[in-house]
User: Fold this.
Amino acid sequence: MKLHWKILISLMLSFIIGLWSNFSIDNQSPPPTWFTGLKETCQFIGTLFINGLKMVVIPLVLTSIICGVAKIGGESGFGRLGLKTIGFYILTGFLAVCTGLLCVNLINPGIVDDEIREKMISSSTDSQSHKIEGALEHADQGIQGLLEIFHRMIPSNLFKAAAEGQLLGLIFFGLLFGFFISRLNPKARDTQTAFWESLNAVILSITKLIISFAPFGVFGLVTPTLMQVGLETFSVMGSFALTVLLGLGIHALIILPLLLWLLGKINFRQHYHAMSPALLTAFSTASSSATLPLTMDCIQKRAGVSPKITSFTLPLGATINMDGTALFECVVVVFLAQLFGVEMGFITQFTVVVMALLTSIGVAGIPSASLVAIIVILQAVGFPPESIATGVGIVYVVDRILDMTRTAINVFGDSCAAVIIGKSEGETGYYKPTVSSE
Assistant:
């Protein structure tokens, strides 16, 4: 059985067991022993899996970037490849934010009765106070992060950046390291290239082993969430959640497929099929960085993109290309403005568009990144300070499921960039590995 079917079955079992467990206890306090045992067992398995993925992210990103740039750094097309990649990421991010802005203005999910508004405000603040306080503590860092993105790009301590998961600094170092390997004399260049390629091969073998446990990890990650929140996740803020999901759906099912066809003459069904294991894993882990090993594996083996393009576009995209996150931030800010009666004209909404694009990159390395980014934007557009914490608490009620969904969109956008840019560089024979394996 292929991996994506195993993961899909695992997800279905997670929903069945998680929701059944939630309904079975019927708000018993304290919960029965079997419930606690099942939840802790699943959390243990899920934590092991995501730790394994995170373990290989740093060496995989560094070795992939160095190998890729060392091969193409001496070529005349290196600068062109970089411009294409950045240009595509800016384009898709802008289209995602505009889609979110259109959806939230058409549906107006924040325009509700005063009684409902008061109930939502009173019920959100207490239950999520610790999360809100944590995000508020980092809000100033988030604002500073917008101005200091270049500081994080050039870390003073590379090992500290690696330990903190600051991928932007590692990518920049990898780009420099690989580029200057290509400038060495032939003997030294061959020695360095052989070393990094062999190290990359070892990391890929370890990654393949970890990925083989994905169905168990997915079950362990998703089941505890559903055991804890049940269907409330889908019902408390249904209109808002549907607005976000509609925007993400338009971006994933209309905009990106159109770009695939117009820019690369690529059949989107083939591409979705090739990327299905990575998308299901991204949905389960809610982390594009943790999913990066599987994304690279799918792009190379199932889509047929060369390691040169893959190792350059995907690690960069996992750090700076956050289409789903940017769309989500835009919808949240306008939704909260509607809910609290804050007037937002065209200029203010354009400011939201720009800030959403910037924050989806600028605060990616800060704890509670999406919450911090939302606070940064709310402060920038003059949102009343007393309403910010309450607003973030309301949004957090459905944040987990939406986080899982927008992460899958982030990963899919990165994969579209890889195949489109590969096609533009003259590569052919895409998706043949998938067809031949069947």
